[in-house]
């Protein structure tokens, strides 16, 4: 008996088709899935909220206090350098500093780029008044930060190592640490 290739292929396909229709793998599609179990639930209660406080009448003792920034050495009342403050040079001040004004932090860049009667300065996300720093200069033991008009914004003195402490022109404590 001889079979042609076409005949053999036709018989093989018919056998595969017939066996595929009788398989049980599709029979599970006719069944419905089992229902899901309900999630456990707790008891819900309702309570009345206290009335809102009018503006300006909130009790501050009920609120957490904000963390205080680093303590800054105070300057003598006459604005002179603290005892033991070293003489400063432009190269000892040049760089990037982490500034802290009344507990708020930012960065101040103090490159040695000539600008006006001192050097250019660049505050980054700083609070007032040091957000207006445009230049800086050193004279003796004092580092002075200036605004765009050449007005003094802050005076600082080295408090050792890589740190300066001082006050802004409106009396706020300010410190610079190498950052």
Describe this protein's structure.
It is found in: Cell outer membrane. Belongs to the rhizobiaceae omp19 lipoprotein family. It is a lipid-anchor. This is Outer membrane lipoprotein omp19 homolog. By secondary structure, the chain is α+β, with helices and mostly antiparallel strands. The protein has a domain of 89 residues: Lipocalin (Beta Barrel), CATH 2.40.128. The chain has a ten-stranded antiparallel β-sheet with strand order 3-4-6-7-8-9-10-1-2-5.
- Global structural class: alpha+beta
Mean pLDDT: 76
- Strand tally is 10
Helix content: 10-25%
CATH architectural label of the domain at 90-178: Beta Barrel
CATH class of the domain at 90-178: Mainly Beta
**What quaternary form is this?**
single chain
The largest sheet, given as strand count, sense and whether it forms a barrel, is: 10 strands, antiparallel
Radius of gyration: 39 Å
Widest beta sheet: strand line-up: 3-4-6-7-8-9-10-1-2-5
Strand proportion: 25-35%
CATH topology of the domain at 90-178: Lipocalin
- Any low-confidence stretches, pLDDT <50, length ≥5? 62-74
Return the string of H and E elements: HHEEEEEEEEEE
- Dominant shape: elongated
**N→C terminal distance:** 95 Å
Number of helices: 2
